[in-house]
Write a structure and sequence with these properties.
The protein has 7 helices and 4 strands. By secondary structure, it is mainly alpha-helical. It has one domain. A hairpin with a 5-residue loop joins β1 and β2. α2 crosses α5, α5 crosses α6 and α5 packs across α7. The protein starts with a strand and ends with a helix.
Length: about 180
């Protein structure tokens, strides 16, 4: 986020700031790096980063950000701001992915990593959108299918996979 303020000479200057505390942003970024994500260079990388963070929140291993429904599924402007800001500050290459010290957090991370394994960006987008429709928009599982189809136009195979992945996700979520 950029805001304008006056320096001690009274001159208007632009300042950048993080939405979350730096430690929380670096933790979220470190988790994304461990998941092979967190890059912001291309649109596809940003989509993958957003969806993996959204799902990581469900496993309760990363700081919470609010998400809105966007063209490509749940999107957090605050997460995007914070990741671009730490990139601007030069932290991207300095953050080293590290395991959690708390065993239960590391176990949750491993379950998340296993859950994400082999899923492409389209699958993550469909799953995150379906979850958002149910848990944020208040749709029932049955009624969320129609807006998912209208918004994302999944093939029959993609829809079946999304419903299956959602069941696995909820089973994993309940373990947390």
């Amino acid at each position: 986020m950029i805001f304008k303020t006056r320096n001690h000479f009274g001159i208007m200057i632009r300042r950048h700031r993080l939405i979350r505390d730096l430690d929380e942003v670096l933790l979220a970024f470190g988790i994304l790096k461990r998941l092979g994500s967190g890059k912001l260079g291309t649109f596809e990388e940003r989509i993958e980063t957003q969806k993996k963070h959204y799902l990581a929140q469900l496993f309760r291993i990363t700081p919470f950000y609010c998400y809105n429904l966007h063209i490509r599924g749940p999107y957090s402007p605050d997460l995007a701001n914070d990741l671009f800001e730490i990139e601007r500050r030069g932290y991207f290459d300095k953050v080293k992915p590290m395991p959690f010290i708390a065993v239960n957090l590391e176990e949750r991370f491993n379950r998340l990593e296993g859950f994400l394994d082999g899923k492409n960006i389209r699958e993550l987008e469909l799953l995150a959108t379906f979850h958002w429709l149910i848990h944020e928009a208040g749709c029932s599982k049955e009624s969320a299918v129609k807006p998912l189809i209208e918004l994302k136009e999944p093939t029959d195979a993609e829809l079946r996979a999304t419903l299956k992945n959602y069941k696995v996700l909820i089973d994993e979520y309940e373990k947390n």
